[in-house]
Amino acid sequence: MVTAVIFDVANVIADWEPSRPLRGVIEDARIDEFLASRHFWQTINADADAGATALDVIARVDAELPAFADIVRTYVDRFPMTVSGPVPGTSEVIDELLVAGVPVYGLSNWWAENFSVPRAASPVIDRLADVVVSGEVGLAKPDPAIYALAVDRFGLEAGATLFVDDSLTNVESAARFGLRTHHFTAADKLRSDLVGYGLLG
To answer: Is residue 187 located within the same domain as residue 136?
Structure first.
């Protein structure tokens, strides 16, 4: 029996695309190389998701990855452009859950200092009961410790909680932790799953 739902933010609630701030400023080939490399996902973005500040990230890139320094500075300076607005349909699903009396929370891998960006773009975030932001707690998905922190902070039971994320890696790690899971691809498919759990009619 599912009694509560935890939502990821990026590409579940808010539409996030890291190439947007770079297009038209940096050559497309360099953008593609940068975003396809482990340096963005495993070094820069992962560090920031786990609590590093933008200044920390820039300093590390200057020291270790100078070829990407201009790209990273552009990305940081124009970060609000990464978020275009709400993911179609998710806000409506969340509002349906809230009307139905279902407790709804957030769990996001996001830089602490700019979580205001998705909040502004997707106001439904402020209607969630609480949100764990990885950069604020120093832990990030798929580390099971962040799921433990979230269910403890929210006062939930893992086995009675549905976790919704667009990352299959995060979904799999959450399932191993003991959460019920939904691999998000579209809001209508999520809604069908929620109907199946008896949370929506």
So the answer is: yes
The 3-state secondary structure of the chain, one letter per residue: CCCEEEECCECCCEEECCCCCCECCECHHHHHHHHHCHHHHHHHHHHHHCCCCHHHHHHHHHHHCHHHHHHHHHHHHCHHHHEEEECCCHHHHHHHHHHCCCCEEEEECCCHHHCHHHHHHCHHHHHCCCEEEHHHHCCCCCCHHHHHHHHHHHCCCHHHEEEEECCHHHHHHHHHHCCEEEECCCHHHHHHHHHHCCCCC
| Per-residue confidence band for 11, with pLDDT thresholds at 50, 70 and 90 | very high
* Same domain membership, residue 189 and residue 151: yes
Mean of pLDDT values over 107-119: 96
pLDDT digits (tens, 9 = 90+) for 130-154: 999 999 999 999 999 999 999 999 9
In terms of domains, do 65 and 150 share one?
A: no
Domain, as residue range, for 52: 22-77
Record the pTM: 0.94
55 assigned to some structural domain: yes
